């Protein structure tokens, strides 16, 4: 780490390769967990300025992770080769508790249901699968639910933040899809299909529509439109808002995140620049 400049920016370099997934701990805001292509998952403790190793597997390439337990003690980690790891931070060492073969050839994202935390959703090449963590075995796992409506490559799949009653997916067929996951049985119906240009090209990070964490019915996604913008859609498909930055926003914000309690949006481009939108009441 480096000492902060006068603007209060700290720089940490805990990984030797790019970071693919980054979350604050839901149990401790001073902890941030980072997953990297270098085959490690680390927990940064800002109070000590130290990143401790949580999980290591240099033979594998990690894509995504999420917290199975609300206290952040256990996690599920997705691998690019389609396997999954269950990791318990309370266990000594940096290995997994269980390594699982999924029925996907590749896993891009993994996301845990916010209420019924035994369920998690994975986005593969073209299929979305929902699994029950209690029923996983090392080999031959079949999903509880498989969503096969996608005709091209998937980028992501996420449960809605408060109840998990919705799922949003982002696909290279230029469609965002919203499903009704209020009853997790053998099928969950498709509610809405939103046409949206998701073709970012080879040099830009792919779009991933994400939910506003404060509500159940709005998703945020980058845009290829001019002038450059970040867009919000209602679950019905209606465009609710476009964040425009004028001369300040001249690039595509592929990665976007809304503040969990305030009306503040941060959008990142593929050059490392972050644009922040806020209303004055959130300052």
TrEMBL record:
Signal peptide: none annotated. It holds the Pfam family WD40. It comes from the Eukaryota. The keyword Repeat applies. Keywords: Repeat, WD repeat. PANTHER family: WD REPEAT-CONTAINING PROTEIN 76 (PTHR14773). Interacts with CUL4A and/or CUL4B. Belongs to the WD repeat DDB2/WDR76 family. Specifically binds 5-hydroxymethylcytosine (5hmC), suggesting that it acts as a specific reader of 5hmC. This is WD repeat-containing protein 76. It comes from Equus caballus.
